[in-house]
């Protein structure tokens, strides 16, 4: 038991120490701003593509998928404005706006890559063109995933009604569409975290090597967002301090917290790998 406590202490000290050494706080700021700058272009690009494919109700679904995992105090004002932006009529798919939207959205992917390369302490040796193409592929995959999920959510009430009519025993387990939105949004986050840890940073990792960081990120996201939401409810003076910019400032601070937790998750994975490698070199 004592050995496990000592090992845990070493791993935590190593992760936090490297987080500070790797300019983790500055990288969290960079990642937060990049995420905010990538969010709107991504949603605009995704909505434009969805409209081109005939999915007119995509905007509302995409906003729910993105913001359902945010605290309500942070998500509600921004989500309302995002819906207003996305429901403005636009031209065909191949417009300069859609192309630029995809490009700026890929910048957010590149920020994730840089953060994880630092956390895992790996040197990036892939070409700039290859990395940028990979980031654009991530954006396209995310777009089509959101599109597929939006179709499923449209069909969910129909499926739920059919199940209710034909399988009486399943009635107590059938939730509302809101519950399904939360479940799907959570699954999207988990799958997204696995994908970025697996494929964005240089080098190769096994699933078991990234699971601790994923769990830390998810638990940290839940705790951090809850604490920040409580602070906004009881102690915040953002509205009086920043006036009309309050919602944006709140979003930036929230994304900064989430970004720091995300980078620490990568640092934790790297620290555990270093500890296991060092222990393996010690003769038994």
TrEMBL record:
One of its GO terms (cellular component) is plasma membrane. Keywords: Cell membrane, Membrane, Transmembrane, Transmembrane helix. It is found in: Cell membrane. It comes from the Bacteria. It is a multi-pass membrane protein. Pfam families: Virul_fac_BrkB (PF03631). The chain crosses the membrane at residues 35-59, 93-112, 133-159, 179-200, 212-232, 244-264. InterPro entries: Virul_fac_BrkB. This is YihY/virulence factor BrkB family protein. It comes from Mesorhizobium denitrificans.
């Amino acid at each position: 038991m004592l050995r496990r406590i000592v090992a845990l202490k070493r791993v935590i000290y190593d992760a936090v120490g490297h987080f500070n050494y790797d300019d983790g706080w500055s990288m969290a700021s960079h990642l937060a701003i990049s995420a905010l700058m990538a969010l709107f272009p991504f949603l605009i690009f995704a909505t434009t593509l969805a409209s081109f494919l005939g999915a007119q109700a995509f905007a509302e679904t995409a906003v729910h998928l993105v913001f359902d995992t945010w605290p309500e105090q942070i998500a509600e004002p921004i989500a309302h404005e995002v819906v207003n932006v996305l429901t403005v009529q636009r031209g065909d798919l191949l417009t300069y706006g859609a192309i630029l939207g995809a490009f700026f959205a890929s910048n957010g992917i590149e920020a994730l890559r840089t953060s994880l390369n630092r956390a895992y302490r790996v040197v990036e040796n892939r070409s700039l063109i290859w990395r940028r193409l990979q980031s654009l592929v991530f954006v396209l995959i995310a777009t089509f995933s959101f599109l597929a999920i939006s179709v499923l959510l449209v069909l969910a009430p129909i499926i739920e009604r059919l199940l209710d009519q034909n399988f009486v025993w399943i009635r107590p387990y059938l939730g509302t569409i809101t519950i399904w939105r939360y479940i799907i949004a959570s699954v999207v986050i988990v799958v997204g975290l696995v994908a970025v840890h697996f494929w964005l940073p240089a080098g190769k990792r096994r699933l078991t090597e990234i699971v601790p960081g994923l769990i830390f990120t998810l638990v940290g996201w839940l705790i951090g967002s809850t604490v920040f939401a409580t602070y906004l409810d009881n102690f915040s003076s953002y509205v009086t301090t920043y006036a009309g910019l309050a919602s944006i400032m709140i979003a930036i601070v929230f994304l900064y917290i989430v970004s720091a937790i995300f980078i620490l998750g990568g640092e934790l994975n790297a620290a555990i790998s270093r500890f296991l490698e060092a222990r393996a070199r010690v003769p038994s």
